[in-house]
């Protein structure tokens, strides 16, 4: 922390959240959140000095040898500085390796023993502070710091918080009000009961057969304050140390024995959902935080995506087998899906409403295998598709993110019954919305209401075995976003990347932790020196591919051509229409045309303006006697007749290719769109279908009068062949990362484009209990056992 203040530029960065952050109604940074403002209100002495730091702690286990073995587990403890801008706080240079826990086995609940030195430091930094030299202000001051939240996967969240994260009370937010049910045939605990989050008099609450056979009149779980949670754990006495298991290896248990064993374990655990009193309660401000341990969106998306694709494609293991159907039989619901024993003694499982036929699986995977995305968007999706085995293989966390937020809603457009399909698409739309980097807090309540309805529909159509704890946790993500800021600031992607860097430090396999520490301290020393050297790139701040290229740089296929008269005039007209100095002359010319041609339509006037404005402006400027603007003189004369063209061009943070160049590549960089409006300024919506997707026919070029646009006006998109109509393409947004490049602090201010966070996909209400069709009637491809 002191080293950051020793450098003038970095000392200024620490103040960014208070002095340079864009302040409006949007959520862009944890400083915009409720929890940040709560700390400011309660501890004004701490918040009065913007140099005081707020950190997030991230920890997870890694195998330092880079293989999949679990015989050795090393736990780095990382600190992320939330005082910095969002584009810097997760960079390698600013992530602090505060501790490295060396263990052959993972520490589990004993992690508090190892964290004690860090907690001691945070206590001292909160209470006493440390005298620090500020190179920016040229003064000494007393630096304080606090721990704002922790970022972990769900098992590690349980280790840090001391809560149970499996079994009856697995939800870290619902706590003792967690709705759970033990399925005796599937031998697992599931978490449903999302009707209690609905409005009090919603019709779904009175439905029985569509859900679990019972009405639900309960209200949502109580949101406990930090003080109330602290009171629950005050009397807990911690017992650290791993207990060694002694005894002979148990024989494989029968189904009945497993159920009895589970019941006994539950009776033991029902005494308390707390395994320990977390060491974080030593921090004086910990009880004042609304959200102390954040749910990681990355792992939630990955687990939900894998469960969903497993249910649809059934690759080997699935959540819709014989045991799942027997659980439905025990619950007395969905009689159409109960197992049927044939005369030959075989068991037949009828196809459920979510069961895909072989043809539908082929259509789904064929659509995914044909997708080409822009450069830097994601890995090649086609590599994940196995058409031979009809499944997806080797999906990483980011692949799951792209699949569930962008690609899956398109790939299922022509399969599944509409109600099931729309429910899945709404779930995907939620993950897309909650992961945005700029969020309007006024829309979060509506987003939460839509998610609850979506989860209730999932309970109607999907088997109970689908609802692991990860399928329940999304219901708490909206509240977490309100309290801690955008979800991308509390997810583990940057931390996981940094853990990969630490793995690469291992040179001596006999002492992996020693290798990591030596490499880390060496890099820190180099970074310290680099801060005082000009024109030297930092190790921890990698140079972006688009840095210095926002104004445009050709990349491939350069060619000089001479323009014909028609193309020349259209290019000249486009430039003139976007110049501020020319606007008065545009209005004057339009007025002249209307005066000379009374009764003509606006469409005719616009066409006449386009064809004659260039020559009219040239003559108009030539007649002016005292024209002070040289720019207007140059513009009226027109550009040169020769022009340089490129097959590939980088501009505004995008990489663009021509269609011809795209055909040689595994990526798609030729798609773009602009915000087009009618003469009245109304944005046309006739390309949007009933499911909220924009579809276009690329073979039909309806409007060719204005082939040129300014680069600032375009947004990169990519096209996916519409599964419903092969002649059409579905348009999906590309992405870029320009914030932080060339002094750009806000992308909206740079490109002036504002996009919605979700699409309107219909979700029909089930008015009557008997309306739900649980079994597929359009195919009979069930499963024989």
UniProtKB/TrEMBL annotation:
Residues 682-730 form the DUF4216 domain. Residues 252-267 have a biased composition (Basic and acidic residues). PANTHER family: DUF4218 DOMAIN-CONTAINING PROTEIN-RELATED, OS01G0348150 PROTEIN. Coiled coil: none annotated. Residues 243-267 are annotated as: Disordered. It comes from the Eukaryota. Pfam families: DUF4216, DUF4218, Transposase_21. This is Os05g0303133 protein. Residues 436-536 form the DUF4218 domain.
């Amino acid at each position: 922390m002191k080293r950051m203040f020793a450098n003038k530029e970095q000392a200024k960065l620490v103040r960014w959240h208070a002095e340079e952050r864009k302040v409006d109604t949007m959520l862009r940074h944890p400083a915009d959140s409720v929890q940040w403002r709560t700390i400011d209100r309660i501890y004004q002495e701490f918040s009065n000095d913007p140099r005081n730091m707020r950190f997030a702690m991230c920890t997870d286990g890694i195998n330092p040898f880079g293989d999949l073995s679990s015989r050795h587990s090393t736990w780095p403890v990382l600190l992320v500085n939330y005082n910095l801008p969002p584009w810097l706080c997760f960079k390698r240079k600013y992530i602090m390796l505060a501790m490295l826990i060396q263990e052959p086995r993972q520490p589990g609940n004993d992690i508090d023993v190892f964290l004690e030195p860090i907690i001691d430091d945070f206590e001292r930094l909160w209470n006493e502070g440390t005298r620090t030299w500020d190179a920016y202000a040229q003064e000494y001051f007393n630096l304080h710091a606090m721990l704002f939240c922790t970022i972990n996967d769900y098992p590690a969240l349980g280790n840090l918080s001391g809560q149970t994260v499996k079994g009856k009370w697995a939800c870290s937010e619902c706590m003792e009000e967690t709705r759970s049910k033990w399925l005796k045939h599937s031998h697992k605990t599931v978490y449903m009961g999302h009707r209690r989050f609905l409005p009090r008099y919603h019709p779904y609450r009175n439905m029985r057969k569509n859900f679990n056979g019972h009405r639900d009149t309960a209200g949502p779980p109580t949101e406990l304050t930090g003080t109330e949670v602290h009171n629950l754990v005050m009397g807990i006495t911690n017992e650290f140390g791993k207990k060694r298991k002694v005894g002979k290896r148990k024989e494989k248990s029968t189904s009945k024995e497993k159920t009895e064993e589970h019941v006994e374990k539950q009776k033991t655990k029902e005494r308390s959902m707390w395994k320990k009193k977390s060491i974080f309660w030593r921090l004086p401000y910990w009880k004042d935080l609304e959200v102390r341990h954040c749910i990681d969106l990355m792992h939630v998306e990955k687990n939900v995506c894998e469960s969903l694709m497993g249910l649809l494609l059934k690759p080997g293991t699935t959540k819709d087998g014989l045991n799942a159907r027997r659980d439905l039989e025990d619950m007395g619901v969905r009689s159409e899906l109960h197992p049927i024993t044939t005369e030959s003694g075989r068991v037949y499982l009828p196809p459920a409403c979510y069961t895909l036929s072989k043809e539908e699986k082929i259509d789904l995977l064929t659509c995914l295998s044909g997708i080409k995305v822009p450069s830097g968007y994601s890995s090649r999706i086609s590599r994940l598709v196995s058409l031979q085995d009809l499944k997806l293989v080797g999906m990483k966390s980011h692949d799951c993110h792209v699949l569930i937020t962008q690609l899956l809603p398109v790939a299922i457009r022509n399969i599944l019954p509409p109600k099931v399909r729309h429910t899945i698409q709404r779930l995907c739309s939620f993950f897309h919305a909650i992961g945005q980097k700029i969020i309007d807090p006024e829309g979060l309540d509506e987003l939460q209401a839509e998610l609850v309805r979506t989860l209730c529909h999932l309970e109607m159509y999907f088997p109970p075995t689908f609802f692991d704890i990860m399928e329940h946790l999304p219901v708490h993500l909206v509240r977490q976003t309100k309290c801690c800021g955008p979800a991308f600031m509390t997810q583990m992607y940057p931390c996981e990347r940094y853990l990969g860097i630490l793995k690469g430090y291992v040179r001596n396999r006999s002492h992996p932790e020693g290798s990591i520490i030596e490499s880390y301290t060496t890099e820190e020393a180099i970074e310290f020196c680099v801060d005082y050297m000009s024109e030297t790139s930092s190790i921890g701040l990698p140079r972006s591919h688009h840095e210095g290229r926002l104004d445009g740089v050709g990349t491939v296929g350069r060619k000089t051509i001479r323009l014909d008269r028609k193309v020349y005039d259209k290019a000249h007209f486009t430039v003139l229409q976007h110049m501020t100095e020319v606007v008065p002359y545009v209005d004057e010319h339009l007025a002249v045309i209307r005066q000379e041609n009374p009764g003509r339509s606006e469409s005719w006037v616009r066409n006449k303006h386009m064809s004659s404005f260039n020559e009219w402006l040239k003559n108009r400027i030539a007649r002016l006697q005292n024209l002070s603007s040289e720019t207007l003189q140059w513009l009226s004369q027109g550009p040169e007749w020769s022009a340089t063209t490129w097959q590939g061009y980088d501009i505004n943070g995008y990489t663009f290719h021509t269609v011809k160049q795209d055909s040689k590549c595994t990526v798609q960089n030729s798609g773009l769109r602009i915000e087009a409006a009618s003469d009245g300024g109304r944005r046309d919506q006739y390309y949007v279908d009933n499911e909220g997707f924009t579809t276009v026919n690329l073979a039909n070029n309806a409007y060719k009068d204005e082939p040129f646009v300014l680069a600032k006006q375009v947004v990169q998109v990519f096209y996916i062949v519409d599964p419903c109509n092969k002649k059409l393409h579905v348009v999906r947004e590309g992405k870029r990362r320009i914030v932080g490049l060339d002094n750009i602090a806000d992308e909206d201010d740079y490109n002036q484009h504002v996009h919605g966070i979700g699409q309107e996909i219909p979700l029909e209400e089930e008015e009557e209990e008997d309306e739900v069709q649980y079994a597929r009637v359009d195919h009979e491809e069930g499963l024989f056992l």
